[in-house]
Amino acid sequence: MTASNEILSLRNLTVDFGGVRAVNDVSLSLQRGEMVALIGPNGAGKTTIFNLITSAVQPTAGEILLNGKSILRKSPDQICRLGISRTFQNIRLFPQMTAYENVELGLHSTPHYSLAEAFVRTPRARQIENDTRKKALELLEMVNLQEYAHARAASLPYGLQRRLEIARAMATSPQLLLLDEPAAGMNEDECNELIELIRKIHQQMQYTIIIIEHHMAVVMELCRDSRIYVLNLGSLLAVGSPQEIQNNPDVIRAYLGERKNARDFSAS
Amino acid sequence: MELFIQQLVSGVSIGAIYALLAVGYALVYSVYNFTNWAFDAFMAFGAFMAFVGISSLFMPFWLAMILSILLTILLSVGAESMAYRPLRERKAPRLFMMISAMGVNLAVVNIINLIFGGTFRKFPVESVQPIFVGNVSIGRMDLIAGLISFGVLALLWLFLYRTRWGLGIRASAIDIQTAALMGINNNAVAIIIFVITGVLSAIAGVFYGIKYAVYPMMGIVTIKAMIASIVGGLGSLPAAIVGSMLLGVLETLVSGYISSSYRDLFSFLFLIVILLFFPNGLMGKNVDEKL
């Protein structure tokens, strides 16, 4: 029974970029509804793993299964329709568009009505447009951006742009949500708000979430009931609960030499 | 005064044709970052197809126009799927796309030349009485060309800013990879864009052919569309339209009051003067600062 509940499985993934092995024999399995974190020093291959899952990068070897089916060599829009959505380490919103339009775009990922219907404005097309508008505003409300609906994305402060990116990722109705450093550049208060937000959407929408994050406090808090995967130099170094990871000598060694990170660990 | 108004109307009508062409360039450029040099060949192709429709198949004008639009769409989408898409899928630099477009241009123009010969032909429409408003005479074809061009541009605007397909295209113009991750099918966007390009070039070709002549190299006029979009401000559709209107009016005024042989001289002079004072074009915006 456990196998049928597995949503994502990475099997022995390896990626070579020229002579550099960016990801080395990484395997990982996620159950539906889990929220896990992927951590590791810079250049460990975390974002490459996201790029693999969204088919932006093809593995040199290995297999990726979503709900038991391979998703290798799918186009990005197919990946989106299969239910995978992501945010980016460096925000990649559509800056000239409004917050509302950014979200609306994702809502259209499933086709509903034809161009002719759109021009003639049949009742059906209008109904769907209304539903779309309502859903877009709901999503903006969920991340507390309702009053910025018609502000251009570029004009929003940094923290709000991060939230808008999360709302946009939710708009495609994903099963699997990949968050790439959502807390980057945030202060402690903002981090706490973010933790609350991610918890809320995780519970309400029943997403399966993988989160890449450098803020250890955020990671330890969000994954207190689940697992953390630690990557180092492309290989999986350790898997375990926050407690286990904090006391794992290999992990401490990987982060050592950077006193800052060591302190991050003890602080959390 | 009558001459001025006549020239103004004529200028707006030629400006509308430039606008169709400028918008066609801007649309491809905004999404794919390359200049579709094959566009002027599409325009000539469109004009010749309408020409054949009327003179050989004895179609009425509107039917020949539809035939021309449909065939030019086929050519445009064909060029996209054979000359551009394979390069795009191999992630070729955009310079290669441009060279590929030049290849398409050469092939199409020379095939037309081979079949029809390089002579200038008069477009086979009967000359009709101009409409008189007071003492001002307005060419019916000028009026029709202007109205249809503006109508098409208005429909295009509605499509881009009021439908979800338009939203997808605008998103692709900003960041095509992220748009794909939001479920936008890149190949579908490409087909829509090249269908639009086909329609724009066919209509522009037919009306330009009526106004001047039909010949294989007639697409050279697209250089004016380039001037217009630079004057307006590169990469923005409304700016391309404004630039086209200004250029069209300037040209007809120069033709009317100075001499038509100085027309192109003034067009390029206009470009230089505008760029001296508005390096981003009249309505060009500086790129937004991120964060």
Average pLDDT figure of chain B: 90
* Whole-number mean pLDDT of chain A: 88
The protein's oligomeric status is heterodimer
Q: What is the number of domains of chain A?
A: 2
Order of helices and strands of chain B, N to C?
Answer: HHHHEEHHHHHHH
Which fold name is given in CATH as the topology of the largest domain in chain A?
Rossmann fold
Q: Which regions of chain B contain 5 or more consecutive residues with pLDDT less than 50?
A: 287-291
| Strand order in space, largest sheet of chain B | 1-2
What is the strand tally of chain A? 10
- Helix fraction of chain A, binned, reads 40-55%
- Number of separate strands of chain B: 2
Structure, described:
The complex is a heterodimer of chains A (268) and B (291). By secondary structure, chain A is an alpha/beta fold. Chain A has helices at 46-53, 76-82, 99-107, 115-120, 123-142, 158-171, 188-205, 216-222, 242-247, 249-255, 259-267; strands at 6-17, 20-31, 35-39, 61-66, 69-70, 84-86, 176-180, 208-212, 228-232, 235-240. In chain A, a hairpin with a 2-residue loop joins strand 4 (61-66) and strand 5. In chain A, helix 3 crosses helix 5 and helix 5 crosses helix 6. The longest helix of chain A has 20 residues, at 123-142. The model of chain A has no long low-confidence stretch (mean pLDDT 88). Chain B is an all-alpha fold and 291 residues long. Chain B has one domain. Helices cover 73% and strands 2% of the residues of chain B. Chain B is built from 11 helices and 2 strands. In chain B, strand 1 (131-133) and strand 2 (136-138) form a beta hairpin. The longest helix of chain B is centred in the N-terminal third of the chain and has 31 residues, at 2-32. The radius of gyration of chain B is 19 Å and the shape is globular. Residues 287-291 of chain B have low confidence and may be disordered. At the A-B interface, helix 2, helix 3, helix 4 and helix 6 of A face helix 6 and helix 7 of B.
